[in-house]
Design a protein that fits this description.
Blueprint: E1 3-7, E2 11-12, E3 18-25, E4 34-39, E5 46-51, E6 58-60, E7 68-73, E8 78-83, E9 92-98, E10 104-105, E11 109-113
Parallel strand pairs: 2-11
Antiparallel strand pairs: 1-3, 3-8, 4-5, 4-9, 5-6, 7-8, 9-10, 9-11
């Protein structure tokens, strides 16, 4: 069965960095577009970044462009999100998502940006 397991969330000060990871299993990882989404308290879940199946094409939300970098390692079935220059408004639960006819979500990892 499809499994997506996120890790790397933490409490970090404004201006700091974190790297989120998503371990994928149960499907041919290299065949699917993947993305990161986030949901802050009281807000709707939003798309943060997406990456094509081979990793050659990426897209970002305006709010994170230039600060976040999405990447993948198809040999290891891993998806990453490098987050730099973090702001308090980046505080949210971050989710890994497999795109396709049927989408799958991971369980999420909490990122808190606070001094």
């Amino acid at each position: 069965q499809v499994q997506l397991v996120e890790s790397g969330g933490d409490l970090v000060q404004p201006g700091g960095s974190l790297r989120l990871s998503c371990a994928a299993s149960g499907f041919t990882f290299s065949s699917y577009f993947m993305s990161w989404h986030r949901q802050a308290p009281g807000k709707e879940r939003e798309l943060v970044a997406s990456i094509s199946s081979a990793g050659g094409s990426t897209t970002y939300a305006d709010s994170v462009r230039g600060r976040f970098t999405i990447s993948r390692d198809n040999a290891k079935n891993m998806l990453y999100l490098q987050m730099n220059s973090l702001k308090p408004e980046d505080t949210a639960v971050y989710y890994c998502y497999r795109n396709g006819n049927r989408g799958y979500w991971g369980q999420g990892t909490q990122v808190t940006v606070s001094s």
